[in-house]
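INFO batch 0412 | record 1 of 1 | parsing
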Amino acid sequence: MRPPLSVVTGIASFAALLAVSCRTDDRTPLGPAVRASAQQYVASSGDVQTVTDADQVLVEYTSEIELRAAVAVTGGSIDQVHPEISFATVSGLSDDQVAQLARMPGIKGATRDVIVQWVPSNEATDAADIQAVPDVLPQLTPDPTTTFFYAAFQWDMRAIRAQDAWPTGFQGQGAKVAILDTGIDDTHPELAGKVDHALSVAFTPNQNPAPFPVWGDDNLHGTHVASTVTGNLFAMASVAPLARLIAVKVLNRNGSGSFGNIIAGVLYATNVGANVINMSLGAYFPKSTRGGGPLNAALAKAVNYAQGHGVLVVCAAGNNGVNLDHDVNFVFVPAQSGTVFAVSATGPIGQANFDHLAHYSNFGRSGVDVAAPGGEFGQPGNGTRDLVLGACSRQTLDPHFAICRTGTFYLFAAGTSMASPHAAGVAALVFSRFGLGQTPAQVRTRLEQTADDLGEPGVDLFYSHGRINAGRAVNQ
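INFO prediction complete | emitting tokens
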């Protein structure tokens, strides 16, 4: 058994505060408004995580017939075949058998897959304080600007000028956004009816029993991300309220998963007709990591396949606070994998300077395309309102957030995980406004050219093309 690999990771960087609304799923009052306590948690954005070997092996082949013959000879079994990119996942092989397989006819390479902590484990958080949450009674309205949380807490929507896009009537209708993450809880009233059940899938199953679907969110990360993209305007605004979601669960209850599952998720979402893929996940790999090069190359090939088949792949730029242009010994995956559209994070300090580049956000022209609101924390003057609001999964198995299982709760968080779905939502608006037949290149160009040019004029080190502007993207 070879020793575990090391990788620097940290996407979600949860700085979370729970708040409660007092409605049931059918949007009827459940007695008097409830007062709830809330806990704030802060997770490190640059923890060194352990990456462990998976049983599966990623195999690049030139002939599927020879692939099947070679796997049979070496004694493995084929789990999945991806003819789109000429890769397969194979299980049941020892390291010696993997080496044997790699030398056989029709095989270009065989690399053992790894299990990566793609989003931080909530177990690594520290309890910071306990706060009382005022009684709330969310308003039911079709206008995102008059939802209960919008004016007081959703600075992020105002920062991207979403309020200038919504009145056009183009609110993401027709667009499908695949969320590759820990799953989605569509029993939360913000997301009820927003997920396409027929198209949703799990490559690692929800650990909650039926009636929860296998693609449900037993973590909580994916639900928060999804509610930024679209929602029912139950108590919070979302970027593209009329867009549809495809849940593609590639991460387990702890936020971990394999390269193979993420690759399979990208290919699946592409083949079932997603217009946008959002990946609020990532890991910071030393380039010398054994197997890292072939695994990242396979992921890049999947991303490029998606791009070539009409899908814009949006991802988080990472929370390591590094210049991706100059950190030559590391690579951030998937932000530096193929033709992804990578997003860095901005966030205010004390509700001022809303386009401040968040202290944790990665940056650099080579690793970032645009910036978007991700929230800020840990700075003097920071408070809850400097974070990003989202729905909290009722299916979470994290004991720190067990309260979310008891009702309708909202989570405040910070990270480039929170920035990425803002850009994915604006992409959905653009597809809705200008037609689903647009190419990913056309959509990304529009997002870049309509972004607010911050920092130095033009494409700069810290904001790249600028902070996205939903109103300009739809109206210009």
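INFO post-check: The mean pLDDT is 86.
INFO record closed
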